[in-house]
Amino acid sequence: MPLRCEVEDFNNLLTQSDPHSDSIREQRAIEITVVHMYAKAKEERRHNPESPLLHRVHHLDYLLKGLRFLPDSFEGLDASRPWLCYWILQSLKLLSEPLSHRIGTDVVEFLKLCQCKEGGFAGGPGQDAHLAPTYAAMNALAILSTVTTPEEALAWVDRTALYQWLKRLSCEDGAFRLHEGGEVDIRGVYCAVSVAVMANLPVDCLFANTPTWIVSCQTYEGGFGGYPGLEAHGGYTFCALATLVLLQKEDECDQDRLLRWVAFRQMKVEGGFQGRTNKLVDGCYSFWQGASFPILHCLMAQRSQQTAISKQCWLFDSEALQEYLVICCQHGKGGLIDKPGKPRDYYHTCYCLCGLSIAQNGPKRNDAIVCDANLVESLNPVWGVSIDAVNMALDYFSSLPLVEQ
Amino acid sequence: MSDSESELSPYVSYRERAEWQDIVPLEQEEGLAPVVQIAYSDRFRETFSYFRAVFAKDELSERALDLTREAAMLNPANYSVWVYRRKLLKALDRDLLEEQNFLADIIEMHPKNYQVWQHRKEIVEWSQDPSLELEFTANMFTDDAKNYHCWQHRQWIITRFGLWDGELEFTAKLIEKDRRNNSAWNQRYFVVNHEIEQLEATAAGGAGDADETQKAVILHREIEFSKKQIAKDSHNESPWSYIKGVFRLMKQKLHLSVTMMALCDELMKDKSPHVAAFLIDAKEELLGQQGEGGSEQVNSILEEVVRLCEILADEWDTIRKRYWNYLAELLQVKYQGLPD
C-alpha cells in the first residue's frame, strides 16, 4: 500500500502565494517545508520500504529521564508538575512501556504532596489548588492504578474536600473558575466534570447549568471557544464535547455543525490539524481535534444515521495524520513536536502520540501505517487515558461511599 | 529593590539582604525519590523558599510585594504568586496605574500566559478604568493579530464597559490587513451579534417593524463586506463561515439570497471547497423545506447535492473524502427515505 506522501500531487494543493496576507505567507512556508520532508520520506522508502518508523527507543529515553529529572529550563513548568507526570506516564503507556511498581509508588507519593488540604491538587507541593493540575493528577493516578494498585493510587484522594472545593469554584451560570481568584473558561468546566465523574462525586446539583453554559460557547463556525463570544478553537472544543459526553448532554449542542468545523481543521497539504481556521498545523491538535471524531462517531452511530457512519474508519484522513506525525513530528533526539523546526516537549510528545493512537485505532481495526511496529495503544478519547486505566479508576471510586453534598 | 523597569534586578541573595534577616526560608517538599524534579537555579530556589516563608505567615508588607514581583518574573505561570500579589496590592492600597505599567511589560514578555492577563483584568475591575485597554490590546495585535488571550481581554473590556463604538471599523481594518485573520472575523460576528441583540431589545419595547428593516440593512451590509473579501480569495474559509453565521443569526435562508447564490455560480470555476459547501448547505435548506420522502423535486435537488459531495470527495477536497461521502449518504438516507 503506497503512502500518501508517495502518490499525492502536493504541488497542486499548495496555497497560492499572496504577500498581502500574513496568514497566507506563513501557511505557504510550512507547506513547502512539509512537502520537502514528504519528498525525502518518499525517497527514503525506495531503498527502505520499512520506513518511516516511530523511533520508540528515543522517545522512551526522553520520557523515562524526564519522569525523574528535568533541567532548569523547566522552571516555567514549576506550577505544572502533575501535568508533567500525566504527559509522561500517558506517553509511556501508549508506547507499551512496562513501569515498575517502584516508579508507580514514587509518583503516587509525589502527587500526595501536591494534594491540598482545602481539596484538589496544586501545580507543586505547597502551592494553591488549581483545576488543571487536579485533572492531570487524577489522570496520572488512574494510569498509576494499573501500575501499582487502585488502593495505593487512589484511596488517599480526599473526595470530600475535592467536592467542597469544586463547589467553591462553581459560578451561577454553570461555568467554573480554574482556581480561587482565578480565570473562568471552558477548561475549568472540563477539568471539574472530569474529576467529579472519575471520583464518583454527586454531579447533578454541581453541574446543573453547565451544559447550557457550554452550549453558549459554540460559535457560528461550529466549534467552541473558551468563553461565550470567543473564536472556535480545538483545545476548547475538546473540553466542550468531552464534558457534554461526561454529563450525558451531548444532544444539546449542534453536532452536525461541529463535525463540519472539525473536519475542516485537517490541513490538505500537511495532513495534520490546525487549532483554528486559517492558523498553522500543530501536532498537539492531532488529539484535541482528532478526539472529536471517535466521540461523534459513537454519538451518531446511536442515532438513525447508522448506515451513513462508516464501520471501518473515523471521518477524517487518518493515514494523512499518521504520516504528518511520523514523518514531520519526531524530534531527532526523542520526543515529538508541534511542527518541523520546533523544540521537543512533553506536552507535544503526549498529544502527538494520543493523536497517533486515534488515527491508528479505528472503530473496528487497529492499523498503523508502514508496519505494526508503529502501532501505539488505544485510549479513551473523553479522558485522554487508556481504557483500562479509566475503568480501573471508575470501578474503584464507584465502590466508595457517596460524598456528602 | 523594585524598579519601574520590568526586568530582574541584579541578583543579591536574600540571605545577604539586611531587610530579610528575620525570615527563615521554607524549603519545598520533594519526597524521598525524585519525580519530575526540576534542577532549579540558585536564584529560583532561594526566591521561592522566601516566598513560601512569607506566604505561610500571610505577611502583608512592602517587602512581600517586591518578593512577589521577583517570583512572578521567574515563573509567571505560578498562579499562587499572582493571587497573593493581588491580596498584597489590596492590603497595601497600591497605585493601580503603576501595576498596569508593570503588567504591560510582563504581558509583552509572556503574551500567551493565562495569569498575567487575568491579573490585568482584575486590576481594571478594581480601578474601573478601561481607558488604556483598547489601545493596549490593539497594540498587542500588531505583534500577533490572533493572540487568543488578547481577544478575550478585549471582548471582556467591550462587554463590561460598553465600548462597542468603533469596534466594527476595527475589525474591518484588521481584515483589510489580513483577510485570513479568522479572529478578526470572529470579532466582527461578536459586534454584529450585539447589534442584533440591541435591535431585538428595542423591538421588545414596542418598535416591532423597525427592527426587521434595520436587520435587513445590517444583513445587506455584511453580505457586501463578505462578498468583497470572497472575491479577492474564494479559498479563504473565514468570510464563508462568517456570512453563513450571519444568515443564521438573522434567521434568513441562504438559498433565498440572490446575491450569494449568484456569487457561488460565478466562483465555481475557482474549485473552492467553500463555494461547493455553501451550495450544499443552501440546497439542504431547500430539502428541509420540501419535506422528506422522495418527490421529483426533492430527488433532483438531492442529486445536485450528492454530485457536489462527489466533486469534493474526488477532486476539490480529497483530504475530507470520508466526510463528504458520509454527508452524501446521510442526506440520501434522510431525504430519499432509503431503508436504514
Secondary-structure topology with pairs:
The complex is a heterodimer of chains A (405) and B (340).
Chain A: H1 4-7, H2 22-47, H3 56-68, E1 69-70, H4 81-94, H5 101-114, H6 131-144, H7 150-154, H8 159-169, H9 186-198, H10 210-215, H11 234-246, H12 255-263, H13 285-288, H14 292-302, H15 318-328, H16 346-360, H17 387-398
Chain B: E1 37-38, H1 42-56, H2 62-74, H3 79-91, H4 96-109, H5 114-127, H6 133-143, H7 148-161, H8 167-177, H9 182-232, H10 237-249, H11 258-267, H12 273-290, H13 296-316, H14 321-336
Q: How many distinct beta strands of chain B?
A: 1
Low-pLDDT windows of residues of chain B: none
Which of globular, elongated, flat, extended, rod-shaped describes the shape of chain A? globular
Query: Helices and strands of chain B: which structural class?
Result: mainly alpha
Shape verdict of chain B = elongated
Quick one: biggest sheet of chain B? none
Largest interface: A-B, 84 and 78 residues
Could you describe the largest sheet of chain A, including whether it forms a barrel? none
Strand content of chain A: under 5%
The overall average pLDDT of chain A, rounded, is 96
SSE pattern of chain A: HHHEHHHHHHHHHHHHHH
The stretches of 5 or more residues of chain A where confidence is low (pLDDT under 50) are none
Output the structural class of chain A: mainly alpha
Report the order of strands and helices of chain B: EHHHHHHHHHHHHHH
Chain-averaged pLDDT of chain B: 93
Q: Span between N and C termini of chain B?
A: 75 Å
Strand content of chain B: under 5%
Question: Compute the gyration radius of chain B: what is it?
Answer: 28 Å
Radius of gyration of chain A: 21 Å
